[in-house]
């Protein structure tokens, strides 16, 4: 009764060896996903904290903004983590002679690669779901929160020693602000309205709610108002107490509707807009965005074909060089795809050609490396090339060694 079960498991591509290799790949993949995602987010979080602190917005908003960045950075973290997981799995198999034992017993590398490609297909579907449906909403939410908290941060309190553009032509700053953010010292206001420039300075100021409870007003004490219009003589007004004539909203006005650009559209919305006679964005931009999302996700499926031959190294060989080649290949693919997407947005060529072309190149190179480098572990075109570079480096070192010794002796 157990033999049919084993046969079914093997037929599905997940026999005992396949499950073992899959487990070796999944563990480092999950660890790498957390590390890569945390690293990408940390750099952005530090910038967000600086922006919020400079604008005087509540710093706790960094959590809401960071959460909306997760779908965006998952699109970068998932392929990188998957590639690292595959590399770690086959590097371990090679270093422990397990791979050689499997090959000598008749197990093919292709049979070990199939379940990894199946996992890649699942990750590709998740990546398309994230980039095609979650990221457009989170991208819009991020911009809406940032607009509400930074562009209109002064509606609730004023940061010290910071110029705040409250609205078009109106700039406010204060030398000192108390803990409440409402009591100001050393107030300076610049108000430009057409040809009229009004400068207001005051010893102190206080932000208070208007009697109707709907807006904020600024009550100033002991100050000067200077009005300067083009072609007229400036006039000055001194005051003991003055309520500034401009009111400030307690709440930010509604943010623009989602879909302001193609990156805020879901896959269905992009497809629908591409069929419209008068789309919200140009057809080349919509098409480039649509196809690039699909291509970036599909590329994950073929990563095992590229990574496996580079990770099948002998114990005495340098794995760092092959890892560098793999990273360079992925970076090159991303850059070529980005260039193709930019050219497609400008309408220089059809988007399917410029986006699917890099994917075809990646698949061809990966298939070539897999078919020529999996018969003998560690013997591939890349490994032979890196071995030649290492040999040339060693020969150059031996040739230059006497020169360095003579210089060292002369200095001594």
TrEMBL record:
| Keyword Glycoprotein applies | no
Q: Return the InterPro entries for the record.
A: LptG/LptF_permease (IPR005495)
Topology of the protein relative to the lipid bilayer: Multi-pass membrane protein
Look up the record and give one Gene Ontology term from the biological process aspect. Answer: lipopolysaccharide transport
Q: From the Swiss-Prot or TrEMBL record, state where the protein is found.
A: Cell membrane
Q: Which UniProt keywords apply?
A: Cell membrane, Membrane, Transmembrane, Transmembrane helix
Give the record's GO CC terms.
ATP-binding cassette (ABC) transporter complex
Extract the signal peptide range. Answer: none
Transmembrane residues, as ranges? 20-41, 48-67, 73-91, 112-134, 320-337, 349-370
Q: PANTHER family recorded for this chain? A: LIPOPOLYSACCHARIDE EXPORT SYSTEM PERMEASE PROTEIN LPTG, SLR0882 PROTEIN-RELATED
Q: What is this protein called?
A: Lipopolysaccharide export system permease protein
